[in-house]
Design brief:
By secondary structure, this protein is an alpha+beta fold. The protein folds into two domains: 16-57, no CATH class; 93-193, Nuclear Transport Factor 2, Chain: A. Helix content is 27%, strand content 33%. The chain has helices at 65-88, 93-105, 109-115, 121-129; strands at 16-18, 24-26, 29-31, 45-47, 53-57, 135-149, 152-165, 168-173, 179-184, 187-193. The strands form three sheets. Strands 6, 7, 8, 9 and 10 form a five-stranded antiparallel beta sheet that branches. Strand 7 and strand 8 (168-173) form a beta hairpin.
């Protein structure tokens, strides 16, 4: 590091004071006094005083207390916002039906069991068995909550299940009956069809 201004005498060999306006040269880069007022990681030093500029050489990975404080505050803010977002975006009853129908056509029995309430678990397995001989997919599924009372809700869906057996497609409309959903263990679960 080459100093264009004469350094002030100091007792700390790691400390250099720059008291002139002309600047400082580091390698092939010339730096004006105004540029020295901000941290510069690329050049490896931090300016602390604007009047009699103090330059501290620092290692590449070092952090000042201000940087640490800002980092901690940012992390705390992220945790708080994530917590609020999770509560605000908890899956509703319509998502439970979408999860159930997706597991049904994908023949995912484990997911189907967790998406179903206890009273519907056996019937859910019977529904899944009816899709074993066919290849099924969902087409245009959109589910909407139409009613909610406490831990019970009614959901209607549009779209269809397309079941393919050999070369033949059969369309099963999703809007032919409303879905009954209940909250069990703090989560919405498919629990049959509403009357």
């Amino acid at each position: 590091m080459k100093n264009l201004c004469p350094p002030s005498p100091t007792t700390d060999p790691q400390l250099v004071k720059v008291n002139c306006v002309s600047g400082l040269e580091v390698g092939s880069k010339s730096i004006s006094r105004a540029n020295l007022l901000e941290p510069n990681r690329k050049l490896g030093f931090l300016v602390q005083l604007p009047h009699s500029l103090t330059i501290h050489p620092r290692s590449e990975g070092s952090m000042t207390n201000i940087h640490k404080t800002v980092l901690i505050l940012l992390m705390l803010t992220a945790v708080i916002l994530t917590g609020c977002g999770a509560a605000a975006s908890a899956p509703g009853p319509e998502k439970a039906v979408e999860t159930y129908l997706t597991a049904l056509v994908n023949q995912d029995n484990n997911r189907l069991a967790t998406a179903s309430c206890k009273d519907w678990a056996e019937k859910a397995q019977l529904e899944a068995d009816s899709f074993q001989a066919v290849k099924a997919k969902l087409d245009g599924m959109v589910c909407t909550k139409t009613a909610e009372t406490g831990d019970s809700a009614t959901v209607t869906c549009t779209g269809k299940i397309i079941a393919t057996y050999g070369n033949e497609n059969q369309e099963i409309p999703l809007d032919r009956r409303p879905y009954q959903v209940v909250k069990e263990g703090g989560e919405w679960r498919m629990c049959g069809y509403a009357k």
